[in-house]
Write a structure and sequence with these properties.
The complex is a heterodimer. Chain A is mainly alpha-helical. Helix content of chain A is about 75%, strand content about 0%. Chain B is built from six helices and three strands, in the order βααββαααα. Chain B is elongated, with a radius of gyration of 19 Å. The chains are: A mainly alpha, B mainly alpha.
């Protein structure tokens, strides 16, 4: 008996290491995303396409048209729902969630997503600013805050899992050559803004008397990738008890505000789609929230409300946020861990920072994003531009893009459905003040870099 | 060499340390809104109930306490292992022990197993390593996948 207990203890306490491959959602996003891309290519290579299952609501102007579309395509929607349900169920079961809780929860999410997607296709939607990401977020916020949804429904509202899967699929629609061409500028711009934002928040926070570890946690939340960065840095520096919840609340409040403000501010300033996307990538905090804002701006572009096209906004955002900011979280954690353990409190946690942390904290879904881009770029290099547009786009790229749109809608809706303001920890005036100082600096510096310094670069992206 | 001697005195092996993703998602309100307990960036960080700190699993301190129990709580039965709050009452105070007690009272005591609330354990390290998904869960997941495959296979023929 004693041996059994010791064995179980050792199993439980063993480092994850390569078990990450099936115990972290980043890797599951890669398996699902690349699986879909591989399947799409297999169909394409055999003269078929997955477009049958990648159905999306069509443009409509009367309810009769919408009803007709849904009736005609009902089997396709049912099949798509079943496919999403199957792959997500397996992934989430492996992560330790209960499939029987996930199934009804996802069914609700899918039905709401169809409604939001359809609303976005209404020909008057742009007149009333009914952009699907904003509608999804607003509807989710209303449902979760006005009604008391059962907690078990949260099993299906996996914001990060959906956005990571969507980002891997996004890689398949973004030429690798574009990443190579625009990547360095994205990294430069993002690095400048990240460092300035972090230092601003850290400086203000410590000046008004906040603990250095809370200051660093808030700083990373504003400078790198929002809530994910905040908890990564909280762990790296050994933050105190309520530091992470404070940072989480602060980031969420600002991120939600920015989702609604940034696209319309960019529109008011007449920024082209690529420039607006870059600004959002520099100035939003969390990946999911930023995608909601960037997708909204892309939708505005596709409706002709701003110059450029939808892809430019999303691509520019992705390059700045994912390639320029997210991938450096491990470096931030490692450097701040060194400072925390050597300057702030060497004895207290008795830990030597390990460079391997850079890898273990690396947002692995970015690898899937890059592989997807590389794969599709490699298999389509032999096509002329006209053949690519005539053959590859409708049969291979467009269906993947449509499935990506679904993953994003699931994510945007889940943000709203899981953001219960009454449950959030109190953030306090000082943390809010420090974070707000960084957010304002971030917005201004981000605008200068996106709309002035690198304006031509982002305006011509994917043109 | 006994198994005990191979255990290093780091948080990862300490009974005061909790880093299960589901537990952290409950302990940090809002974490699931724009992030997740299951992401790579969190690595294996967790909460130290002894010091009320959020720490890297490789941290250590003189108050290291070796894990001695391994059973999973099945509810609030008096015959089960002590609740997390009870178990740590003599060792810790303040925020997280209070949180655990509140969580247990409001979630475990008054909710059914199907309510999406997960039983906490007195061995709260990465639960995936300790408690792999049950057969029933896997059956439900694969059953769903099977139905999906059949649906996807049949519908085009009906529709076509």
């Amino acid at each position: 008996m004693a041996n059994t207990e010791v064995y179980q203890n050792r199993v439980a306490a063993a480092p994850l290491r390569w078990r990450e491959l099936w115990l972290k959602e980043d890797w599951w996003a890669i398996w699902l995303g690349l699986g879909i891309v591989a399947l799409a290519y297999a169909f394409f290579a055999n003269g078929a396409s997955i477009k049958w299952i990648a159905v999306t609501p069509a443009k409509w102007s009367t309810f009769a048209q919408l009803g007709q579309h849904l009736a005609d395509n009902a089997p396709r929607y049912v099949a798509q729902f079943a496919a999403w349900l199957a792959v997500f169920s397996i992934a989430l079961t492996a992560l330790g969630h209960k499939a029987r809780a996930f199934i009804p929860s996802f069914a609700l999410l899918y039905v709401l997503s169809v409604a939001i997607f359809a609303l976005g296709q209404w020909d008057k939607a742009v007149t009333y600013n009914l952009e699907p990401p904003l509608v999804a977020l607003a509807l989710g916020l209303i449902l979760s805050n006005a009604l008391r949804l059962p907690r078990w429904l949260d099993t299906g509202f996996r914001v990060e899992f959906y956005i990571k899967t969507g980002i891997v699929l996004l890689g398949a629609t973004l030429p690798f050559t574009l990443i190579v061409w625009a990547g360095p500028a994205a990294i430069l711009q993002a690095s400048i803004v990240s460092i300035i934002t972090f230092l601003t928040i850290y400086f203000v926070a410590t000046r008004i008397g906040l603990d250095k570890r809370l200051a660093a946690t808030l700083g990373a939340g504003g400078a790198v990738c929002g809530v994910s960065a905040a908890i990564a840095i909280a762990g790296a520096v050994g933050a105190k008890k309520e530091d992470a919840p404070i940072a989480i609340t602060t980031v969420i409040v600002w991120a939600v505000v920015m989702i609604f403000v940034l696209p319309f501010a960019a529109q008011l300033l007449h920024l082209p789609a690529g420039v607006g996307g870059a600004w959002i990538g520099t100035s939003e905090f969390a990946d999911a929230a930023g995608f909601a804002a960037a997708q909204t701006y892309g939708d505005l572009a596709s409706h002709g409300a701003v110059a450029g096209n939808s892809d430019q906004a999303v691509f520019a955002y992705t390059l700045i946020k994912v390639v320029g900011r997210d991938v450096w979280i491990g470096i931030w954690a490692f450097v701040l861990a060194i400072i925390a353990t050597t300057k702030w409190e060497r004895i207290e946690t008795g830990r030597k920072p390990n460079p391997a942390e850079i890898w273990w904290r690396f947002p692995k879904f970015v690898i899937g994003f890059l592989i997807a881009s590389l794969l599709i770029t490699a298999v389509t290099t032999g096509y002329s531009l006209s053949d690519y547009n005539k053959t590859v786009v409708p049969a291979l790229v467009a269906p993947i893009k449509d499935l990506r749109s679904w993953a994003f809608i699931f994510c945007f809706l889940s943000i709203g459905l899981t953001t219960r303001f009454r449950d959030l920890a109190s953030m306090g005036k000082k943390p809010f003040l420090a974070f707000s100082a960084g957010a304002l600096v971030n917005v201004v510096v981000g605008f200068v870099l996106s709309a002035i310094v690198f304006a031509a670069h982002w305006e011509n992206l994917a043109r | 060499m006994s198994a005990e001697t191979t255990i290093t005195r780091t948080c990862r092996h300490c009974r005061h340390f909790r880093n299960d993703a589901r537990f952290l998602e409950t302990a940090f309100p809002g974490l699931t809104s724009m992030s997740s307990g299951y992401g790579s960036v969190r690595a294996e960080d967790g909460i130290c109930l002894r010091h009320d700190r959020y720490l890297n699993a490789a941290s250590s301190c003189p108050q290291f306490g070796e894990i001695t129990e391994s059973r999973i709580l099945s509810g609030t039965s008096g015959t089960a292992n002590p609740s997390p709050a009870q178990a740590v009452a003599r060792q810790t105070s303040s925020y997280f022990s209070g949180l655990l007690a509140a969580t247990q009272q409001s979630l475990l005591s008054h909710a059914s197993e199907d309510a999406g609330v997960y039983a906490m354990t007195d061995l709260p390290h990465e639960l995936n390593g300790l408690e792999p998904p049950g057969v029933a869960n896997w059956l439900a997941a694969f059953g769903t996948a099977l139905v999906a495959l059949i649906t996807i296979g049949i519908l085009p023929h009906i529709w076509g």
